[in-house]
Amino acid sequence: MTDFAPLLVPDKGQHAHILYPVRAAGFEEWLAGQPERSRAIVAASRFKGKPGEFLIIPGNKPDEWNAAVGVSETLGPWDLAPAAAKLPEGSYRLADGVPGIAALGWLLVHHRFDRYRRDPDPIPQRTLVTPEPARIDETVRLAQAVALVRDMVDTPAADMGPADLAALAEKIAAEHGAAFSVTQGDALAQGYPMVAAVGRAATRERAPRLIELIWGKGGADHPRIAIIGKGVCFDSGGLDIKPSAGMLLMKKDMGGAAHALALARLVMQAKLPVTLHLLIPAVENAVSADAFRPGDILRARTGKTVEIGNTDAEGRLILADALARAVEEKPALILDFATLTGAARVALGPELPALFANDDALAADLLSAAEAISDPLWRMPLWKPYVEMLKSEVADINNAGSGGFAGAVTAALFLAEFVADDIPWAHLDTFAWRPAAKPGRPKGGEALGLSAAWEMLRRRFG
């Protein structure tokens, strides 16, 4: 794991190169204040202060140089990343103002997933000095959380199976004095029958399990919050098997679990006055003679019967049992993260998680936090008339919507069947993957919706 702490330090007047944040709208004003020599360099380089542009401005001595950085009107988390990715080792400070959330992108430029590289390229260490010492620890923890999600999602399924997921959760629980438990075998089949059914085709070493972590003092002054993550460590599609192209990225189908675990760690690190209940149903949706079948009828933890219309709609099955367990404790709110539907990606693309919520206040708080932290979400409707698409002729509900329409909505409506109406609940259908690299955001696993959820919890309970 990248050590981010030395990369963001208090400004104590130490030597540092100056970074001039320049906005396109204020470019002429900024240019007018520069020395004639600098203006000539700017003109020759055609630097205009557009976001992502970057220019070295030499001083009178070899080590006396500064840099101009094109940024957006409101300094966002990724505005300094293009410059940070190109700057040599050294210390830097903004010419005016504070880095704020832009420090996050600065830190994440230094993260690489190089676990499987024999000779990884060294990363220049660029330190940002900040006049906001009170925000350093929080920003470092958030960078660690994003890096945790990326590393977990990027790890191949052979090394990130249900047992590996449980071991990592147990390690984090131990670091924070949280109670930890794993339900598997006969106890899983009895208590979480849909988790057991989805994962039963996997080998014994990759057997399904329900991972739980409980942290906090309890009591009325520590409201209970439940965080749930879909932990499908590899998804073949089951007997409704995916084509090879559709299977290629399915190591990332535990991205919801990665988000949930990273968010839980943020809650514990910040010592929020809450009682935290983390639940991760961890399975591999494999193919064998014992695999659950299209047309099978499963009985959920709640007793509701579910007809299997598609074995590739397995994520909602395991989440349903985890949601039912969380509801039993009557939490103040439930958040779940899942790489649940391709339909959400068709609707919103790879960078915009779909938000579903049964509570307008919770949805509004999440959207407000998302805007403030520049980690966007888009609310989608829990359009109840579409429950008809999940109708079964032989069971209480079908796990796959008929007709092929509104796939993200029907998936969320399926989950809603297992959540009490009086418990605020939000479901984030996230991609957990970045298909193309950007500065500070390499191609691969990505935390999408994590920062927004954390900002919401921090505002509500911090």
Task: Report on this structure.
There is one protein chain. The chain is an alpha/beta fold. The protein has two domains: 5-110, Leucine Aminopeptidase, subunit E, domain 1 (3-Layer(aba) Sandwich), CATH 3.40.220.10; 141-461, Aminopeptidase (3-Layer(aba) Sandwich). The chain is 32% helix and 21% strand. The protein is built from 15 helices and 20 strands. The strands form four sheets. Strands 7, 8, 9, 10, 11, 14, 15, 16 and 18 form a nine-stranded mixed sheet that branches. The protein has a six-stranded mixed sheet with strand order 1-6-5-2-4-3. It has a three-stranded mixed sheet with strand order 12-13-17. Helix 4 links the parallel strand 5 (90-94) and strand 6. Helix 5 packs antiparallel against helix 10 (255-269) and helix 8 runs antiparallel to helix 11. The radius of gyration is 24 Å and the shape is elongated. The model has no long low-confidence stretch (mean pLDDT 96). InterPro entries: Leucine_aapep/pepB (IPR011356), Macro_dom-like (IPR043472), Peptidase_M17_C (IPR000819), Peptidase_M17_N_1 (IPR048816). Belongs to the peptidase M17 family. Residues 310-317 form the Cytosol aminopeptidase domain. Keywords: Aminopeptidase, Hydrolase, Manganese, Protease.
